[in-house]
Amino acid sequence: MVTSLPTLARAASRAPQDAGGLLAALAGVPDPRRGGPRRHPLRFVLGVLVSALSCAGFETFAAVAQWAAAADRELLLSLGAAPDPLTGAVHAPSEATIRRMACGVDAQALEAAIAAWTAGQLPEPEPDAGPMPVAIDGKTVRGARSGDQPAPHLLGACTHDSSVMLAQRQIPGKTNEIPMVATLLDDLRAAGHDPDSMVFTLDALHTQHATARLLHDAGAGYLMCVKGNQPGLRAAVIDQLRTHQPVRFGERSRGHGRTEERILTVVPATGIDFAGAAQVFRIVRHTGGLDGQRTRKEVVHGITNLRSEHADAARLAALTRGHWSIENGVHYVRDVTYREDAHRARTGNAPAVLAALRNAVTTALRLAGAVNIAAARRAATLDPHTVIRMFTRPAKPDKGPL
Fold it and tell me: Hey, which CATH number is domain 126-329, 3.40.140.10, 3.40.640.10, 1.10.1280.10, 3.90.350.10?
């Protein structure tokens, strides 16, 4: 489905329940510069970055400055430009100013502002919808690697259904993803989310006793893959599947030049020493060509604290597949559509700041109805006013001000 310019215009002009108020949320990010009044307020510079990133072809600092220089007076004023008090002239920020601000702004404060704004824009869940599926996964900003300096690594929490990033946190250089799950959980709470209304899906790296205990004690659901990094747990899961009568669920798909068959078997997690463990399962995936010939087999084991009355075999299969929403709906979009891994910004906080703003743009476009982010950004290039209206609208009345 291609997002046309009229479609974006209708999305931008709809009621405030659409993505909005982002620029107001960014106004709360502290300005890293010292001293008195500045020619370009931080909110304005961040607004220019967000708006330029909404348009295809404006991914670098030089391109963002070019976009701002070509923007008309009305557009710059709507982004928060401060007119000259004597002449009334409105000036666009230079490339040096944009780069300096992106490098110096507090990335954690920016992420907190975006997370709070995102929480205020999500639609209210249906009464019987059950817990919200959220994928936790990390991504490396490869283009920011420089010499002996490793590329920044970011851990994010993303919804399965809408591929919206709820919170993101940069991993400090002397640690890894595993202990940062607790920090990410705190970030979700600070943004206004209730972990007990969520079920988190995680890859095998996070299949740790401490992580399971953390999520289970928070009242959240979890679903984790079990691989060779937990040999004792993996052996217990296999033994449990071998000695109990399993419930089976199968599904097939055809597309993208291949066929796939997935068979999930699930049994109770009786006697398994893992925090909150309620069920264990195995998924066997057979893939092949469109002729139906199987050419590849993959076996994945998993464990969850969701009980069978809340998550049957079909639900577990859907949660396992849904985990890839963060890869396909967020990481792939940032890599391919925004060319994140090709971006060479590596100074200060710039890599994390730009990643946060790319997430915000994608969220705004998705919540406004855009299906194809690349097509939506091309349409925004033709008339950026249609997209900027999404960023300047107030928060939803029932969510309160951001």
Answer: 3.90.350.10
